[in-house]
Amino acid sequence: MPERTQTARALRRRAPGLILITAAALYSVVPLLSMVSAALAPQGTFPSGLSWPSDPHWHNFVDAWNVANITTLLKSSTLIVLGVVPVAVLISTMAAYAIAVLEIPLGRVFYIILVMTLTLPYEIVIVPLYEQTRAMGLLGTQWALILPLIGMNMPFAVFWMRAHFAGVPKELSEAASMDGAGPWRALLHIHLPLARPAIASLSLLMFLSTWNQFLLALVLIDDPDKRTMAGALQAFTTKYATDQVLLNAGALLIMAPTILVFLFLQRHFVKALLQGSVKG
Amino acid sequence: MSSTRPTKVGAVAVRGRRRLRARRWAGWLFALPALAFYGVFNFYPVLLSIQYSFYDWDGVGASTWVGLENYTAVFTDSEQFTTLLHAFYLILFFTVLPVTIALITASVLRQLEGRFTGALARTLLFLPQIIPGAAAGVAWTWMYSDNGVINQLLRAVGLDDVARPWLADFTWALTAVGFIGTWLSTGLCTMLLLSGIGKIDGSLYEAARIDGAGPIRQFRAVTLPGLRNEIGVCVTITIIAALASFDVVYLSTQGGPGTQTMVPGVAVYNLAFNDARLGAASALAVVLALVVIAVVVPLQRLFREK
Amino acid sequence: MPKQQHPTSPVRTARRRPRTPLAAVAAASALATLAACGAPGSDSDSGSADATPTAVNTAVADKSATLTLFSAAGLEKYEQGLADAFMAQYPKIKVKLRVEADNNYNTVLPRLLASDSTPDIVQPYDLLGGVKDNLLTNLNAYDEAYGWSEKVPASALAPGRVSDGVIGSGPLYQAGGSAGPLVGVFYNKELANKVGMKTVPSSISELEDVMAKAKKSGVTPIVASNQDGLIGHLYNLLLGDYMGAQSLSDLVHHKPGASLDTPEAVKATKTLQKWIKAGYFTSDVNALNQEASYGKFTGGKGLFFFQGSWITQTLDQNFKGEYGAFPMPPAEKGGKYAGMTSNTLAFSIAARSKNKDAAALFLDFLTTPKAAEVAVDNGYAALTSGASDAAEPSLSGTLTEQIQTGYAAIAADNGFDSWLQNSAPAVGTKLTQQLQLLVSGKVEPAAMVKTLQTAYADALKSS
User: Fold this and answer.
1) Rounded to whole angstroms, how far apart are CA atoms C26 and A120?
2) What superfamily does domain B73-303 belong to in CATH?
């Protein structure tokens, strides 16, 4: 039967690749599965690595939800993301527009300085940021995280949006100014609609980095309940390590929102992440 | 993209250009908010860090100018200096290993026609990239613990002697932390290289095959050069992640046992916020930033597309 | 494909343009900033805070005020109890707790004290640093007004006095009544029965006998956590035993001439090393934090737990009645008891507090029997006047009684000392690392003591 040999041959040819990709996918997911299995064991026990409990205690997640204060944390993280992302996207788009389309004088210098700081690790700013936010009386409030994060996002965001504007044909803006449209109207009516995909990807990337922000949250907000979800993890792990089961359940809950958002917006995420890294 | 486009002839153009110039300055109104946020919360703190690094300061009381003392300490205090060595060791696991794995996966998968990565595989590969690094620290602390998956596997195949609490093990802790980094970067690198390999012109492989090149020669002659840019991207991102690592180490070992897994990021945090030595912390942070730049800039040149 | 869509990569752009403007701008602004700003810390306005009030008011019970008490999570239940008892007595004054994770408390405290949102009432571990930076209120005027020096034993107030960077005498910065945790040996009753521990070990060698027996019968002798360096509790107990409580206290209090580099300290370190080598700890102790060790102890994974009274808050939730406590046995039979304690009824008032008078009323409340009662209910021991004729430590009796007798036994021997890491923050960091090295067999006792002494001397020099 020629058909069967053909499929067999194709399968054999595909096998190494399929095995590889399956192995890689398993490797990605095993640590999380191990957490799930531990999270379902009875509280107060010492579960081991990866074993499906015969009697899964789903209620552990409810307990962990309350113990880890997830409701408060969700609110706090959402507040921080809402404070950072729209403002950062807006002002970086405007700045990139000014640099790339309006070609403001010294815009290039500004841009190069931004790009130079793109690779700087956060470590270099945490100490001064702490002192600054303290001097401004913001320390311990969500503002202490929101304002610096907007600033810290500028290099990447402006870089990203400038790359987009640089790709827009010049004729377009020229046509706009011929029509007598001021720079505001040109931005609003001509450039923004075109920039929508770039802005969407940028927003996703910024959502992710803000939501997952750990170091700055740890340093700038003393009250774990006012931190990002990731920032609260540290307080959570030390407070509830008493019980391996609850610890895993709580940590999973803390990861859940990004995973859910990822699953829903998967296509966009993958595109944004791939583009984001190629550019960054 | 600079101002080399053709201009109209005559005086109209000159006047127009002058008006244009004024309008261009007005364009700064668009850039001002970004400039303000960037200046106050990014650029200025970097300068402040440099300033702090010349002082001995506990963050609350008065400070004393100490010149370069904090910098000499970074290089003479073996504890601070080894954090930099640890960071470079982590590059093996954050960068070399993931890029190698990704290259192998990508080139094996290339031979399968079409878009082979199913949605499921793609989703799973990306998961480590999505969750907070801090959460990865928690997940792997559990993987490595005495009764975690790693030891469970080892014991299952009869390697009971090898099983150990990995993060507490003096010899293996840093390597164990490194593998967390491998986990974090492999998925992204694989996807990046896969998307890159899809862009290589298939006829190049065809030509190589006609020349009698085997899979290995094809890989060296076609795949590697074709992926130059993507490899550069992977290497750059992951090296920065390795050198400036904080989240993962802080949540898995906090730098212990002893100082076996102490990396510059955690050391900066400890110096500043536990030991109240803000000057020393700033000096280490500045050195770290310089190291990152010194490594990344040449890499960019190396991998730049011709 | 992104690259084709956006043909400008940062590096290429950077290369096409001359670098000079950037370098010039950066350098110029850097210089300008450095020149324009004074040294860091020079603008701190600690002068505005009245760190040494003289005109104080004790008639504040009827004035409504809200006090913030900065609490560590491990003490939350106890301190909430104190706050509730206080509010029951003074309904006009509200006491709110602000809770921080245990391992962040010390880190956050100095910065909080220096901020505008300072809590009013705190328990500073680094008392010397707090005084040096003008973060704490000099309580002498309140002491005079309320008569604390008459009401409270001098020994309970001495650890709250600071002069010239030394603890023990001079102006009062931390005050209240007197109660403290028993830091000693907590044991699993069931496992103690199993290994046949019938009486309280009365010397280190008797304790070692019990642990050897436990090890032989398959019971892990010691539960501990050392990712956070908390074998330090045991290490400190051994230091107190071998060096003597006074020498250890002198060191922590920065007494001139005090040194850790002594044969006694080396001996204490060697004892700990011996226990590590004998396999009295589990192999993953360097990977565990305090809470994980709570889980191990309540899960029956070991016999002894060298810890302090504060653990009762967590352990009693589901382990009540199943564990007991006794003080660390003296080095030799018949020797003196020693153990760390901290005055859990003594607090400080932030220098920047706006409610100093009300906060002082809270401190005064801490000297009352009511406050002592709350302490005892929460596993702490209150110092009673008849401490010397208290019962001997024993394995019978409730945990509360055991804690009281254990505490009294140490008090009778004048054996209270403090934690080495309280001498300076940097010593704490170093101690954790050295203990982890000791557990891994990577440092020898003599070298470890030398390293710690160097860290201590360096910290003293810079303060």
Assistant:
1) 15
2) MetI-like (1.10.3720.10)
